[in-house]
Amino acid sequence: MSLSDSRPSAPIAGADKAPRGSSPLSVRWRDIRNRALMSPRFHAIALATPIGRFFARRSADKLFDLTAGFVYSQILFAGVQTGLFEALAEGPAPEEDLARRLEMPLDGARRLLSGSAALGLLDKLPDGRFMLGAQGAALLANPGAIAMIRHHDAFYDDLRDPVEVLKIRGGGRLARLWDYDGQSADTRPEGRSTSETTRYTKLMEASQDLVAREALRLFDVRPFKRILDLGGGSGRFLTALAERNETAQLHLFDRPDVAILARERLDIRPDADRFRVHGGSFFADSLPDRCDLVTLVRILHDHDDEPAMNILRRARTALAPGGRILIAEPMADRRAHSRIGDAYFNLYLAAMGSGRPRTPEEIAEMLGAAGFSKPRTIPAGMPIATSAVTAVAT
Ligand SMILES: C[S@@+](CC[C@H](N)C(=O)[O-])C[C@H]1O[C@@H](n2cnc3c(N)ncnc32)[C@H](O)[C@@H]1O
Question: Which residue intervals define the domain O-methyltransferase dimerisation in the entry (predicted)?
Answer without folding.
Answer: 65-136
